[in-house]
Amino acid sequence: MATPLLDKVEDEAAASPYITVTLRIRRFNPEISDEARWEDFSIEIDPKERVLDALHKIKWDVDGSLTFRRSCAHGICGSDAMRINGKNRLACKTLIKDITSFDRKTGATKPITVEAIKGLTVLKDLVVDMEPFFQAYRDVMPFLVTTGNEPTRERLQSAEDRERFDDTTKCILCAACTSSCPVFWNDGQYFGPAAIVNAHRFIFDSRDEAGEQRLEILNDKDGVWRCRTTFNCTDACPRGIEVTKAIQEVKRALITRRF
Amino acid sequence: MKIHKYDTVIVGAGGAGMRAAIESTKRSRTAVLTKLYPTRSHTGAAQGGMAAALANVEEDNWEWHTFDTIKGGDYLVDQDAAEILAKEAIDAVLDLEKMGLPFNRTPDGTIDQRRFGGHSRNHGEAPVRRSCYAADRTGHMILQTLYQNCVKEGVEFFNEFYVLDQLIVDIGGVKTSAGVVAYELATGEIHVFQAKAVIYASGGTGKFFKVTSNAHTLTGDGQAACYRRGLPLEDMEFFQFHPTGIWRMGILLTEGARGEGGILRNKEGERFMEKYAPVMKDLASRDVVSRSIYTEIREGRGCGPEGDHVYLDLTHLPPEQLDAKLPDITEFARTYLGIEPYTDPIPIQPTAHYAMGGIPTNVQGEVLRDNTTVVPGLYAAGEVACVSVHGANRLGTNSLLDINVFGKRSGIAAAEYAAKHDHVELPENPAELVEAQVERLRSSTGDERVADIRRELQETMDANVMVFRTEQTIKTAVEKIGELRDRYLRVSIQDKGRRFNTDLLEAVELGNLLDLAEVMAVSALARKESRGGHYREDFPNRDDVNFMRHTMAYREVGDDGTESIRLDYKPVVQTRYQPMERKY
């Protein structure tokens, strides 16, 4: 990806770690104009810093009106999913050095493009309306359902049964997967990968008793069958969840009714 | 301006706020106001676990846990509250398991437990396995599980609503909570929430430090709103510096890494904690470990060209164990440092982590306006509050516990209060103060920038009131903060719009940080002793005769409008534990 830059950076490390990069950001503010536009910002940055650090430099020192969501800054709160160089990533988990490349002719760095995630309405700059995303999540009954009397102590679960759904418990609801899905772009009615991942987390939890109900919800015309296994979601997941595999497991469970 | 009417309003949707909401929604009409979407809260960053003496893997009991908590807090803990915390811990963990939390399991299928700093068998004999965990993302699992159960219970959220003011009215001479005033990020509209009961659960204030594990959004908004309305803040000088933050970045690497066998080493490769804590070694309490790290660095045994950090060494642990028990933090080392923890040690330094102090409450979560009097209708829980179960230094895994135990208690107490009381009348022009504040920032043409003042504040806090403090350094900080507060009056913003104006809110947040930093420094200056997280090089010993008492800081406004901080003190509640010298 960026080896030429890395070499250059290491050679010059003794002098100054800073390089100049251009961030080409998709701006939109309906208070000012109905049209979105690209705006370039040139900044000095240590390539070991994050894209989020670059956005902060712009917001704090150049243009305070640049608007984006962020909180934890290390990839666990899920606030800052955005499209960086055309791929969905978390700005706080993407280092400048890993996405910068040099133009071999001029020696200059190519601009890094940053835009809002796709498929959800842009409200301002990099901020989108997350409501449809969370609505799909709420629709799959994302909570443990049990019947009968509660035990006095914990419910028992073997380490193997616990491992069965471990991967899908990692989800931070950042929407990187759902907003990378071509089916979701074309039709906002599709539940989308994140909602299915969260259904999977409960369908395959040995303690849960509502797997059938969740499968029925996902058997809907806007459910799992819409998935075209393009693997965009798996590539986009900043938590490394095998999203497509989880969707396939839900499809299989629908056919075999075994989970 | 819009006016809403609810029985109970909860400010904040992290662990404490959502645990409270699950209880209060069942019992009263509840609204949760949160400046972030609920699953963005910093509870999700907690890693290592939640303490409870389940005794699933070895002998343990809640009395030992109580003792460890009190000793860990260097005897500034209110002992009745610590007893509640440890006793109710067991049900708190079981509640979460029944709500669906996927804890790691023992071979028998029960909840697995591991070692953590300061938690011991039989009053300090040896480390005990008390921390219930889900890999190294226990906080993430708690946050998700609580949000899932909020969805199940139909909790009503107002997302991206910033609470900027607490309304307090005088009812027959009694200061009573009437509700809150909030700013809606999406529209810039101001909302008044009239409520019979208000619960603050808005988290910590670590962003006044530069190297911190805290999120950008942890700016002490709840503490500041109450403080500005004349309510005291308790023990603000006590801030925890977690020993293992990623060097320069401050990102947290769980103490669970040492619980799993990780070792701290200096540049000689020496396991230096053996010198400072012969029994607990790397698992001594956090204040002790952080001071030991800085002592090594100051004495020239730090690592790297500038000798400004030490190593967390996990290389002797099997890769399978790291993958199974510490997947997230090993990933952080790879992502942010380009280091492979299987084979290379991780550079770390102490990172500003947790406010032990906050809004004073009793064990029901009721907020106090002096040493004993409650403010009817006002509650607080979690890091924003000071019960005090953490005293001068919190034990690892006791914060995830705190939010669950006292979140639940305050949720029940607030809803029960709401059931028995009527709304009190709102003051005339309830949004007056917030409207003026927002208008002033939006129209200011001053020459100061938010980012510059915040940077200077963070630098002075790191340099002067971190792990080691002296009268001189604290005075330097107080002076600098005063200067920054003056400059803050001339701050202006570039975004003058109403839609998603985060420029404006960062300016508001900076105002909160400045107020709280000043309270912290002034409280620290007056405490002429060393205890837990507050270490004074000019007073290196604990002084139980003069200082085994809580600091209570009040904002005073003189007739001419000048502001000052008045300090008072509150006795520590002692039950059965006599203060002893603290050794690990």
UniProtKB/TrEMBL annotation, chain A:
It catalyses: a menaquinone + succinate = a menaquinol + fumarate. Pfam families: Fer2_3, Fer4_8. CDD domains: fer2 (cd00207). It is an enzyme of class 1 (oxidoreductase). Pathway: Carbohydrate metabolism; tricarboxylic acid cycle. Its cofactor is [2Fe-2S] cluster; [3Fe-4S] cluster; [4Fe-4S] cluster. Its EC number is 1.3.5.1. It comes from the Bacteria. Binds 1 [2Fe-2S] cluster. Binds 1 [3Fe-4S] cluster. Residues 161-183 form the 4Fe-4S ferredoxin-type domain. Keywords: 2Fe-2S, 3Fe-4S, 4Fe-4S, Iron, Iron-sulfur, Metal-binding, Oxidoreductase, Tricarboxylic acid cycle. Residues 19-120 form the 2Fe-2S ferredoxin-type domain. Belongs to the succinate dehydrogenase/fumarate reductase iron-sulfur protein family. This is Fumarate reductase iron-sulfur subunit.
TrEMBL record, chain B:
The keyword Transport applies. It is a peripheral membrane protein. Keywords: Electron transport, FAD, Flavoprotein, Membrane, Oxidoreductase, Transport, Tricarboxylic acid cycle. InterPro entries: FAD-dep_OxRdtase_2_FAD-bd (IPR003953), FAD/NAD-bd_sf (IPR036188), FRD_SDH_FAD_BS (IPR003952), Fum_R/Succ_DH_flav-like_C_sf (IPR037099), Fum_Rdtase/Succ_DH_flav-like_C (IPR015939), SdhA/FrdA/AprA (IPR030664), Succ_DH/fumarate_Rdtase_cat_sf (IPR027477), Succ_DH_flav_su_fwd (IPR011281). Its cofactor is FAD. Residues 7-400 form the FAD-dependent oxidoreductase 2 FAD-binding domain. Its EC number is 1.3.5.1. Residues 454-584 form the Fumarate reductase/succinate dehydrogenase flavoprotein-like C-terminal domain. It comes from the Bacteria. Belongs to the FAD-dependent oxidoreductase 2 family. FRD/SDH subfamily. This is Succinate dehydrogenase flavoprotein subunit. It comes from Streptomyces camponoticapitis. The lineage of its organism: Bacteria, Bacillati, Actinomycetota, Actinomycetes, Kitasatosporales.
